[in-house]
Amino acid sequence: MCFLSGHTLERGAGYSLHQLQGDKGAGVSRSGHLLEKSEDIFHADETKTPTRVNLLTCQIKMVADDKRSFDLVSYATWLCTNFEIVICIECSGVHRDLGVHISRVQSLTLDHVGTSQLLLARYMTNQVFNEIMEATLIASSKSNPSSTMEERCEFIRAKYVEKKYASRSRANEKNLLNKLEHAVNNKSLSSLLQVFAEGVDLSAPLPSSDCGETALHLAIK
Asked: Please, what CATH class does the domain formed by 59-160 belong to?
């Protein structure tokens, strides 16, 4: 048992933590115990008192077997909030250079990442993202840890900016907009990503709208 301000906390199973804000007051150990008090989740190690954490940051971190989903097979601690995928620190620098209109990155260990962004990342996953954005990629063409920075930059720009490796249908703009509307209505992230990869104009009026509504208008209804 562990006590905090007179409250009894149940000690849970051991786990691996990506701390939300890198708060050393919560301990520097990356392993510890989950402690539950009412509806709150706390983290503690052997020397520090418990501190509240966002449990989603623990769930976002990929296990070693999922490294095949990374752009470079490395240790991922960064979240690209435009695409809701997890990336490594080496790739985060390249993503940052693309500009926030293409890729905005936040640290899972140092930044305060919003719950909505973490939830989206859980449902998108790197695997689903890559199934669409790397559909035509030849495995040997993918960057690896020994790739030069120039090679990494070239691959990441081709994948995220040019959408070079995504499969494309022969749909015209009107058909793509119909697919976009269908994806929003069905709340399908993968279908939405597919039409994005095919170059649909996300700001264009939807075919069924009589007042110029866009996909964003439809999504927030």
From this structure: mainly alpha
